């Protein structure tokens, strides 16, 4: 029973002043059928670059897949022609983004835009496509769908526009939906509704989802498995309950503290000091989190931690959990 998607050793580079720098560095993970995988990290950690790599929507001439494979149903889609990839995009794999206003065209009606996706991939009449778009809008919880198809994006609220984007994304019943910060621009109540909607659609359509977010709270709501990314690498991976019960990586611990709490004043939020190193200043050896890590040891800048198994389907890339680490150093961990 092969996973739906297998990303193997993906390396994606960006060209800066003639040289390529990897924004995604040897990332490997699977997405099983019907699974929701959360990808968490601050902005600049490579989450979006990773998803644009899967979709082959990297900015042309700037972003480039430089190594690895992206197998979708056993086929390496990272090497497909533009034409084949166009067939797959929107039909087998689709994507929604943070700001629906930039993905929706302001001059066309909602119905026209959904129907364009459908007619692109399926041999239907305009009338059939209209019926489908109305039923899709109903499926994503939009009231008065027959009327909304004739309206323009600016006539809807942000939450409703995101529902329209979801309707477009699922119009051809894709097997995989990539949702990049789908609720970040929305207020908290609408956020919860959209997450609930995604979960419902995932179940109804037997779809898999990659949910990209900077907010671990969002992950807790609907994900089965979580990948934590830092500076282009996966630093921790675990089933969601396991991650929340026993976070291991110091970066994950800090992300946990940064989860916004409804009953807290914004001032009391824990934030993580410092910045993700930029791709041009990435340390070539050692842990990429070392300059911000509250638990860093001198060795962290000279030894590169590898993602290793710590049991319970849990993997972490940190020297504190590295079994090959000399035993006197391990005491640091045991004392904790
Ligand atoms: Fe911190 Fe060192 Fe672990 Fe990196 S390897 S997360 S710097 S303790
Ligand atoms: Mg992003």
TrEMBL record:
SUPFAM superfamilies assigned: P-loop containing nucleoside triphosphate hydrolases (SSF52540)
Domain ABC transporter: from-to ranges: 5-256
Membrane topology value: Peripheral membrane protein
Top-level taxonomic group: Bacteria
Record flagged with keyword Transport: yes
Gene Ontology molecular function: ATP binding
Keyword set, alphabetical order: ATP-binding, Cell membrane, Membrane, Nucleotide-binding, Transport
Primary subcellular site in the record, as a coarse category: membrane
Protein family: Belongs to the ABC transporter superfamily.
PANTHER family cross-referenced by the UniProt entry: DIPEPTIDE TRANSPORT ATP-BINDING PROTEIN DPPD, OLIGOPEPTIDE TRANSPORT ATP-BINDING PROTEIN APPD
Name of the protein described by the UniProt record: ABC transporter ATP-binding protein
